[in-house]
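A reminder from the course coordinator: this example appears on the midterm review sheet, so study it carefully.

Given structure:
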């Protein structure tokens, strides 16, 4: 699982710090077309024919022109040793990490749940005078085959000032 530190909790929201991590990403104008390509990459469809362990969470972002899905790569991978994808529609990069506000919800994710929890999170950030610095991400932690105790989150990048918590 991708590591993070909880810096502060406000009601049902956590302020987290995520260290840099290697990721594999697929971006498309077609909703949901990236999972198979990303799974192929970690199954060995890469320059080293390297099998890569599946980690959690899966990161999903949506914007006006399309969507993206990204897999977090295990900690052993760095900018120097991560195999390149054979599929040119995939990108491997080091995510810089940073501070994020996170809110969790259960069940299968859906547009309505994503919208509801994004609104709750944005409202709390506004109330606490914490500035966001980017678009929300949806994090999914469980296989589609897991039915109960599912974990999903909305993550919004923030400009974090530790003095806000003094």
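Designed residues:
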């Amino acid at each position: 699982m991708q590591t993070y530190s909880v810096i502060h909790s406000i009601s049902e929201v956590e302020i987290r710090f995520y260290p840099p991590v290697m990721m594999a990403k697929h971006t498309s104008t077609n909703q949901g077309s990236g999972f198979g390509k990303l799974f192929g990459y970690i199954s060995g469809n890469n320059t080293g024919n390297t099998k890569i362990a599946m980690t959690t969470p899966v990161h999903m972002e949506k914007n006006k022109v399309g969507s993206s899905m990204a897999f977090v790569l295990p900690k052993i991978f760095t900018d120097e040793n991560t195999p390149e994808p054979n599929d040119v529609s995939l990108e491997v990069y080091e995510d810089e990490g940073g501070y994020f506000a996170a809110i969790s919800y259960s069940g299968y994710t859906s547009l309505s749940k994503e919208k509801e929890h994004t609104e709750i999170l944005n409202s709390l950030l506004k109330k606490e005078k914490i500035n966001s610095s980017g678009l929300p991400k949806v994090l999914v932690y469980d296989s589609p085959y897991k039915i109960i105790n599912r974990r999903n989150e909305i993550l919004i990048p923030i400009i974090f000032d530790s003095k806000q918590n003094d």
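The first strand starts at residue 5 and ends at 10. The mean pLDDT is 93.
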